[in-house]
Amino acid sequence: MLYPVYVHLGDDGSAHGATIPDFPGCFSAADDWDDLPANVQEAVELYCDGEDMDIPTPSGLAEMVALERKGEYEGGTWVMIDIDLSKLDTRMQRINISVPANALREIDAYARAHDIPRSRFLVNAAIQVARGKGGKRRTSA
After folding, report:
1. What are the DSSP calls for the chain, one per residue?
2. What's the mean pLDDT in 121-129?
3. Exposure check for the chain: N or C terminus, fewer CB within 10 A?
4. pTM: predicted TM-score of the whole model, two decimal places
5. Residue 4: its pLDDT value, please?
6. Average pLDDT of the chain, as a whole number
7. What are the residue ranges spanned by the domains of the chain?
8. Could you give the CA distance from residue 125 to residue 136 in angstroms, rounded to a whole number?
């Protein structure tokens, strides 16, 4: 969904700064103009991470221009950036998986030792692997 973003253009010594008004207090920056959309997406994801909140409807560009005319935004330019709202949905969903008994014992031992719920441990581990930060070890299920 397209959201208005106010960008203060950087120069050789500073990055482009971005303010996302529909997410109050959410800011981002990028040295390269082409990196700005991805950085804004990441900023919004971090802003919403772990929060139980309704995702705001994008303000119209006319509303943003009116704020600029009131002096709330100065020295930059408005751009519309596509934010993937599907990445902001943090509602819990129950799933059913099959796990080898020996793997489950190992998972539970780790989770107990670190005082975290099994589900949280499994989600965190899966996300690390999915994002390329985990190990390469494969097991069959």
Report:
1. -EEEEEEE--BTTBPEEEE-TTSTT-EEEESSGGGHHHHHHHHHHHHHTT---PPPPPPPHHHHHHHHHTTSS-SSEEEEEE--GGGG------------HHHHHHHHHHHHHTT--HHHHHHHHHHHHHTT-S-------
2. 91
3. C
4. 0.67
5. 95
6. 89
7. 2-88, 94-141
8. 12
